[in-house]
Amino acid sequence: MNVGQIVDVLEELYPLDLAEDWDEPGLIVGNPQWGVRTIYCAVDPTEETVNDAIAHGAQLMITHHPLYFKATHTVAGSTFRGALVTKLIENHCALWVGHTNVDSAERGQGFAFIDVMGLKDQGPLVPHRDNPARGLGRIGKFDTPILLGDFALDIAHNLPHTESGVQVSGDPFQEISRVAVLPGSGDSEIMAAARSGADVYVTSDLRHHPVLDARQETGLAFINTPHAAIEKLVFNLMVQDVPAAVRARYNEEIEMLITSINTDPWNVRF
């Protein structure tokens, strides 16, 4: 197997045309002809995760977040991102980024959350302009209502541990059955969650004023999750779907690893 073959599989599962207009996912570092036996998955391409991928003998690193969010004129090793590019190339480890294209994929970020939480899939929160079956976020439904506080505890138990923890805005004794989720920064879609008829909106990076206003205007409850923790859930699906697709297309086996490294930047809580 080589990098190009794996990229073809990845971009069939997570098409690049699902990405938001400002996003540039895909193969970022590496030669498509490099061989691949082991793939290492992490939410963030940091010095620690890159070193760990190399230590595990990976020839391809998949991250959810981009190495470069903005255009650059240099990949010099004197910059911290350039140093990561240099290290990856020196160790023949390619980097493929699946960002908002993975967010909008059918078995992407939103589906990963409702799958692990045992919710029934009701479709995307924000349908994609070209494919309404796909899109940002997801709506899920419980057959039997549960308490908001119990749901938040279940989320905390199913996410990787962080010092940030899980926060709730709402009555913990409120019964909920319909859930809107958008893993990652989601306060731009608060009104979409409200319009969906959800009882609670699960996302990350929620800010004071948008939540305060929405609580008063809509009555919607909120669960604020650590950004990297909720987005790590998608790798539970990816390590099933990618090897199965490789097997079906090429009759080959690959190894996929999920990092144990916590990249949440908030490491102390007082």
From TrEMBL:
Keywords, alphabetical: Metal-binding
Name listed for the protein in its UniProt record: GTP cyclohydrolase 1 type 2 homolog
UniProt family annotation: Belongs to the GTP cyclohydrolase I type 2/NIF3 family.
Signal sequence, renumbered to the chain: none
Domain of life (superkingdom): Bacteria
Positions of a divalent metal cation 2 binding: H64
Keyword Zinc-finger: no
Coiled coil: none
Residues reported in the UniProt entry to bind a divalent metal cation 1: H65, D103, H227, E231
GO MF annotation list: metal ion binding
Entries under InterPro entries matching the protein: DUF34/NIF3, DUF34/NIF3_sf
Quaternary structure note: Homohexamer.
GO cellular component terms, semicolon-separated: cytoplasm
